[in-house]
Every structure is written in C-alpha cells, then in structure tokens.
Amino acid sequence: MAKADALIFSCSECGYKTGKWYGCCPACKQWDSFTEEKAPLSIKRSSSRKNAAPTIMRRLSEIDSHEQERIFSGITEWDRVLGGGIMPASFTILTGDPGIGKSTLLMHVANKIAENYNVFYFSTEESLEQLKLRASRLDCISDKLLFSDQAQFGTIMATVDQHRPDVVIIDSIQNCVLEDSPSLPGTIGQLRELALYFMRLAKDKHVALILTGHITKEGAMAGPKMMEHMVDTVLYLSGDDQWQNRMLRTIKNRFGPTGELGFFEMGSAGLSELKNINEYLLSDTVCTPGSVLVSHMEGSRPLLLEVQALVVASKFSTPQRVISGVDYNQVVLIAAILEKHLKIRFSSYDIFFKVSGGFKIKGSNLDLGIAIALLSSFFQKAFDKKTVAVGEISLAGLVKPASFGEQLIKEAVKFGIQHILVASKQASSSAHCRSCSTVHDILSVFD
Ligand code: TYD
Ligand code: MG
Question: CA-CA distance, 308 to 28, in Å (whole number)?
C-alpha cells in the first residue's frame, strides 16, 4: 500500500518548517502565516534515488572551457553592474521594493538586447495590453522582442524548450504558478521549488534567465533572500520615494565583482542612465551653512555627495536627533567627540542631518564631513567654495587617513574641487588638500 504523503507546515513569511501547525510562527513571530505542504521532494523521490545510476568522475584538465561571450545590452550602467553584460546560461534575480522600477528597467534592457539576441519576456503580473502601454511610454516597441503573459511554469518551460531563446525574462517569480504544487503561488514553499526548476532550465537549455522578485514591506527579501544561494547573480534596485534616482547594486555575482553600482533616473519616459553621476550630483550643490561634500566609495566608484546639518538650540529637555542617510549613532558619536574636545554643547541643541539626493551611505570616511557639517551649521558659516572632507575621527579627536583616500581625492580634483580637507598624512596627495590633524584644526578652516 502506498504511504500517505507526510504533511509539514511552513511559514509563508520566513520559510520556517515544522511538523505541527502554529498560529504564530516561533521563528519570525508572524501570525496566521502557516500553510500546509506535502513532504519535500527529497522524501517523495526516495525510490528513484535508490535506482539512480553512478556518474563518471572527470578531471578538470579534460574539460574544454573557454571564456563565453557576454550578452551586452549597450546600457552601460546595467552591463557594468553585471560584470560586463549577462553571462549566457546564467540565472539572475532582480529584487527591490514594489514600484521601484524593476519591470521598467527590464523592459529597457530586453528591448536593447533583442536587437542582437532572441529574448522572451514573460510578464506574470501584467496583461499584454498593459505591457504595450508601458512599452510605448518607454519607446521600447521592438518587433524583435517577444512577450507572453503566461504565468504557468510548465508553459514557460515548454516554450523555452521549443524555441531556445538566448535570454528569458520572468517578471515576477512571485506570480509564477507551479502546477500541481501543494503550496500557493508566492509562498516560500513554491518559490523554493520554482527557483530550483528555473535554475535547471537555465543550465540544461542554455538560456540566460532573469527573474524579478519583490521584497517585503519590512525590507526583508523574504522570498528572493531564500533563493539567493541558488542563483548566480542577485541585483538589488533601490531608491527613495521622493527622489527620482535609482541605484542598481550587485549583492552576489558569480561572474563579476559585488558591490558594483549603477545609477539611473526615473522620468516620464522610464529610466535613463546617469553615466556621470558626480557631475549630476555636483550640479545641485550650493555653499550654505551646514553643508559640505563628502567623497565616498560605493563599489568601485567614488561618489561626491552633499551632507547637510542643521543645529538649533533645543526647546526640549532631551534634544532631538533627526538623522537620515547616514548611521544615527555615527552622527551622535561625532557630536559627542566635538562636545568633549571643543567644548561645544551640542547636548543642548537639536541636530537634523541628511544626505542630499536621498542616498544612504555609511563608513568611517564620513566622520570628518559630518563634523564639518555640524560645526558649519553651529557657527552659521558657509565655505566660499565647494569643499570636500574625507577622513576618520578617533574618539581622542584625531583625524585619521581615509581608506581609498588617494582615489577619493583624485575624484574631487577631477571635478574641479579646490578645497579638500583630509588627515595630515593624506595632505600631500594634491595641492588642493588642506590637512586637519585634530578636531581643533577643523575650527581654523572656518576662519
Ligand atoms: P515598475 O517598473 O512597474 O516597478 P516594479 O516593477 O519594481 O514594481 O515601476 C512603476 C513605477 O515607476 C510607477 O510608480 C511609475 C513609475 N514610472 C515612471 O515614473 N515613469 C515611467 O516611464 C514608468 C514606466 C514608470
Ligand atoms: Mg513590476
């Protein structure tokens, strides 16, 4: 007699599995998130595993390998982030908040790639009419690009098997339906199975697969996070609600460096590349009290970003600290160092701090810029020319050299910055550098 399928319960938020049902997940504390699943594939397939034939073990020297030609889109920011274009037969996932621009970006990329390669675009979320409206807005109506609004995995697999396109885009995996699966579309159980089948599809049929996946409201990449180890490349598209700029970052890449960044701007005709991001950022900066530029490394790119501080006498017994774009504790720490060594009572002042353009940056290289912005606002003194600050500040109030200092200084000089504040050890890097050894030296830059 056939054994009944063992049942397991899995949390749709975090993927936690258990043999019994819970109202509240013991792992992530989410209520009402448990769904029933059949036993995992490994258990169900135990009989076929027993009958499996042994494989032939090979030496790597016997393997014929050659560097594969990448699939270039001509969209430089996209190609660079991927490490030089899409690798044939690779499996990539593009994640980001709903509405951030994933479908828009892929439509642009697909349209460009379709000029030289066969591209199939499966939209599991939008109808063909909706896709046409979007494509017209983006001016991406190429007759070489083929679309489908089918969401069934079996249909997608059969189509790919028959036509063998070079690139397949699936937007999104959460709305993809795995036929005969006991779990619902979008649940962890189904996403995990789908990811496994898609990975096999990419490798066996030699197609480059690009999937999109939403991240949850809380910012955790619930589904996509769980798939990260199965895919070759994880891309993350981010941005700010109030700003139109979008950043594309590689979180994982088997075929190139991680941490690489690409910049885009969302407009009425979709996403346009910001190839010269520093020119774009600097065009908006003005010299006002509380504002200074920091040179900051993102991936392999130095960015010139404006940080802004507003320091005002507090009306409350506990002064306010409203900080965005940089680490809250970093600003509080720098204010405490300045208070201790320069005897400035920041503890009786409210501090408001932000990074222009909605960017989120971190790193000890920002310490000097934060200190200068705070002091500039406190004294209500602005620099008479654009000023960049790069350096770390120790608890003892010493200014230390910045990591990647040479590169950061070079970038500032390239964009015509003639006033660069650095640690004394880095001051020789350029004639435009002015050295600060301690926080006391910072006071003299306002004279
Ligand atoms: P979309 O690519 O659908 O986001 P995702 O696939 O990540 O969910 O982008 C939707 C948002 O982008 C929507 O808020 C409108 C905006 N948008 C523009 O501003 N301009 C455009 O040309 C397009 C197509 C979208
Ligand atoms: Mg979308």
Answer: 37
Per-residue pLDDT, averaged over 310-337, amounts to: 95
Q: Ligand 1 mean position to 105 CA, how many Å? A: 9
**What atom in ligand 1 is closest to the CA of residue 107?**
2
CB 98 less than 6 A from any atom of ligand 1? yes
pLDDT 10s digits, 411-424: 899 988 989 999 99
Dist CA 160 CA 206 (whole Å): 10
What's the pTM? 0.78
In angstroms, the CA 122 to CA 215 distance is 20
- Looking at per-residue pLDDT, the higher value among 181 and 44 belongs to 181
* Dist. CA 22 → ligand 1 center (Å): 38
Whether 360 is in the pocket of ligand 1, judged by its Cβ within 6 Å, is: no
- Mean pLDDT of the chain, nearest integer: 87
Ligand 2 centroid to 442 CA: how many Å? 48
pLDDT at 158 over 60: yes
Closest approach atom of ligand 1 to CA 96: 7
Q: What are the chain's domains?
A: 1-42 (no CATH), 69-274 (3.40.50.300), 279-446 (3.30.230.10)
